[in-house]
Design goal:
Blueprint (H helix, E strand, L loop, with lengths): L2 H14 L7 H7 L4 H12 L3 H19 L4 H7 L5 H12 L33 E5 L2 E10 L4 H15 L8 E6 L9 E7 L10 E5 L2 E8 L4 H15 L13 E5 L2 E8 L1
Antiparallel strand pairs: 1-6, 2-4, 2-5, 3-4, 3-7, 6-8, 7-8
Helix pairs in contact: 5-6
């Protein structure tokens, strides 16, 4: 099964479980997709975070239920996982610009988010890579909380702040984007800059353990954020759809050395 076939299978599982409360991370496992990879690639291919897509599909179907059935608003709210009719009404109005109580009088005003269907690109540029094995890494540094809309600004800003406030420090050895454990919201993750050394001039230092793994390694002949962002985006949009490797549910790494960046993707 290709990556895009897995992705469409995952979308179908979402559709079947919009009213069951099954977590997207569980559905991703059923589709044999690493959830960390899914959280990153879904917004790139759909132009919306996974959590926003699921919410939009629920509210689309909730609107249809209001028009086509005699169910009470509170029953529909609970059916789609909302804790109260008030919480459901707020989300419903934000999506449809219409209160649930108004729907049956104005059914033509409902907004609809269609079920996604991903189509693999017919061609892509060649991307050179190699497979390497790395031992477990113990890294130390600092991080910031960010989201899909801001990470491309927040990550470079973190580097700049470190360079300005601590010019005595060498360039970080690694950069890593890690999702908060136990959360299914794609807007809940952290970007870290990390060093091999543990003695660092920060008030709070995080220790990050990177498991031993095989990795796909892509050379980026730059350490500029714009170049790294462009090439990592190309991996997810162009290489991954035809990739025959099974990715591990671990964060990607950016390894900075000798004026270049190695973009590392964990594989089984």
């Amino acid at each position: 099964m290709t990556f895009y076939q897995q992705l469409n299978h995952f979308v179908e599982l979402i559709e079947q479980n919009l009213d069951t409360g099954v977590a997207p991370s569980v559905l991703a496992k059923q589709a044999n997709l690493p959830f960390a990879t899914l959280q990153k690639v879904f917004p790139l291919l759909s132009s919306m975070p996974l959590s926003e897509y699921i919410r939009g599909r629920k509210l689309t179907l909730a609107g249809k239920d209001l028009v086509q059935t005699n169910l009470r608003v509170v029953d529909i709210a609970y059916q789609y996982g909302y804790e109260s009719a008030e919480a459901f009404s707020r989300a419903f109005y934000k999506f449809h610009h219409l209160m649930p109580s108004e729907v049956r009088h104005h059914p033509g005003s409902l907004r609809s988010l269609a079920k996604l269907a991903f189509v693999a690109p017919t061609s892509a540029r060649d991307i050179t890579y190699e497979v390497v094995e790395l031992p477990q890494l113990e890294l130390y540094g600092i991080g910031i909380r960010t989201d899909n809309s801001h990470v491309n600004v927040d990550a470079p800003q973190l580097f700049q702040n470190v360079a300005t406030q601590h010019p005595e420090l060498p360039h970080p050895d690694y950069g890593v984007l890690r999702y908060a454990s136990g959360r299914d919201d794609a807007n809940n993750y952290y970007y870290y800059v990390l060093w091999r050394q543990s003695t660092l001039p920060f008030a709070q230092i995080t220790k990050q353990i990177i498991s031993a793994s095989r990795w796909l390694k892509f050379h980026i002949h730059s350490q500029e954020s714009v170049d790294i962002q462009r090439e990592s985006k190309a991996f997810y949009e162009e290489f991954l759809p035809t990739c025959s490797y099974l990715l591990r549910d671990e964060p990607d790494l950016e390894y900075y050395h000798d004026g270049i960046t190695d973009f590392l993707i964990p594989i089984n």
